[in-house]
Specification:
By secondary structure, the protein is mainly α. It has a domain at 2-54. 47% of the residues lie in helices and 0% in strands. The protein contains 6 helices and no strands. The radius of gyration is 27 Å and the shape is elongated.
């Protein structure tokens, strides 16, 4: 399967390879000497089949966490922080600000 990954990486690095004529693409896939399933998935350009053969993830989720030491300290305001409206004070709307 490392041949498949190397082939996909090579195609990703060179746009001309990804847009070659079907005969040239088939010859490049055949030159890899793959088993039938990965060969057919590449020929069909079937991303789902390749994902299954390579053991890929169905879904990927990313998270962002604040860096250590970025907490607000007493008496300091972080950039972009201003007065937060309390429950008694509604937030100002841009629509209300200049519209008459």
């Amino acid at each position: 399967m490392s041949n498949v990954i190397a082939f996909l990486e090579k195609m990703g690095n060179n746009a001309a390879l990804a847009s070659q004529a079907p005969e040239e693409y088939a010859a490049a896939v055949d030159a890899l000497g793959l088993d039938d399933a990965p060969r057919q998935a590449l020929l069909d350009r079937d991303a789902d089949a390749l994902n299954g053969l390579l053991g890929g993830r169905l879904q990927m989720i990313g998270f962002l966490f604040p860096a250590d030491g970025d907490e607000k300290k007493d008496g300091e305001e972080q950039e972009g922080d201003g007065e937060e409206p309390t429950q008694d004070q509604p937030k100002e709307s841009i629509r209300h600000k200049g519209a008459h």
